[in-house]
Amino acid sequence: MKVALITGITGQDGSYLAELLLEKGYLVHGIKRRASSFNTQRIDHLYIDQHEKHVHFKLHYGDLTDSTNLIRIIQEVQPDEIYNLGAMSHVKVSFDSPEYVGNVDGLGTLRILEAVRILGLEKKTRIYQASTSELYGGLEENKNAAGFYDENSPFYPRSPYGVAKIYGFWITKNYREAYNMYACNGILFNHESPRRGETFVTRKITMATAAIALGKQECLYLGNLNALRDWGHAKDYVEAMWRILQQDVAEDYVIATGVTTSIRDFVRMSFAEVGIELSFEGEAENEVAKVVACNNPLYQLEIGKVIVRVDPKYYRPTEVDLLIGDPTKSKTKLGWEPQYDVAALCSEMVQSDLALVKNNYNGQLEHIVG
Ligand code: NDP
Ligand code: GDR
């Protein structure tokens, strides 16, 4: 039985990856942080009483800022594969806690690599590092000739998060070259799901769509509506992570759909899913979206009502304007193909949030900061 260790197991990707690896017959260990309230909602369904026989899913308390703890867990677990998904992953929040992000997202990666080396597991343990399209920074001139970012495009990170992740990228590559370790970067473009954190823009929009349609929220406040993102489904992307670690040679891969959509169009798509048509008017901070038609008799929305406004507090000091990835290498070498397009992704998220809001789930709508 193969043994995997996942950092960030309580997050969106950690939960889907744990499901995938359990389906494949792995023994899955996860590292979770101790929190004053429960933070395991996304993985509770995988947990079996540890007193039972044949338990294939185990959790360990730990933190990417704590080397000795990481060394102890890795020594105990002796993993065949480590997926380093743990991170402070919110780009806007990284401007508020830049040092912490450097420590967790940057040095945390080093701590994992060093732990494997110190324990002499270089030959046994393969390591996946959660790198990101934020490394590119969205600079127009750095796209390839076809207009995409690929494995050879230059990096220009635009946030403390991106800068910390660039350290993680390079230290992973360096350990591969210096110590012949099987360590790979997946340069993943944005991926979402019904389990996406509620302060990331897609989930904020789909939650608000449900709450506004059901009369539980008046208005959705967003930042930059012009940003463009290449959005895929997290379920597809964890499959790519696994494939990256199954190759003969360790390499880095871009994982993306190759299609980009603006925040404004995602808002339009999300409300269309519940039969609400919007018209956007005004510019920059004064832009609003009004209801022009409500085609679902279940939802009582007044025509002309403003239900989306811009609040500049959600702007970032430096923005990544456009991301679009070229998945040619992953399609060719990994045989990876995304199953979801952005429309199917959006539809699944809205339907899931409608069910949650109908069940009186209010989420974090009142105090969203991201
Ligand atoms: P989430 O924010 O949903 O999950 C992050 C996970 O990291 C959580 O389990 C969190 O624990 C954990 N974590 C945070 N700080 C620490 C710490 N100090 N020590 C140990 N664990 C910690 O992120 P995603 O699942 O969306 O992303 C997974 C990884 O992929 C991240 O590294 C992210 O930066 C990267 N990435 C994500 C993309 C995306 O679009 N989703 C795209 C490209 C890269 P807790 O639950 O306790 O907060
Ligand atoms: P991103 O995701 O920064 O790309 O990082 P996010 O969903 O936070 O933002 C995407 C774009 O939407 C714009 N935006 C808003 N964003 C948020 N969060 N809230 C708003 O109200 C809002 N209004 C507009 C942003 O300015 C941005 O342009 C995600 C994270 O998962 C990272 O960890 C990961 O590395 C990258 O994706 C790839």
Automatic annotation (TrEMBL):
CDD domains: GDP_MD_SDR_e (cd05260). It is an enzyme of class 4 (lyase). It holds the Pfam family GDP_Man_Dehyd. Its cofactor is NADP(+). It catalyses: GDP-alpha-D-mannose = GDP-4-dehydro-alpha-D-rhamnose + H2O. The keyword NADP applies. InterPro entries: GDP_Man_deHydtase, NAD(P)-bd_dom, NAD(P)-bd_dom_sf. Residues 5-349 form the NAD(P)-binding domain. Its EC number is 4.2.1.47. The keyword Transmembrane helix does not apply. Keywords: Lyase, NADP. Catalyzes the conversion of GDP-D-mannose to GDP-4-dehydro-6-deoxy-D-mannose. Belongs to the NAD(P)-dependent epimerase/dehydratase family. GDP-mannose 4,6-dehydratase subfamily. This is GDP-mannose 4,6-dehydratase.
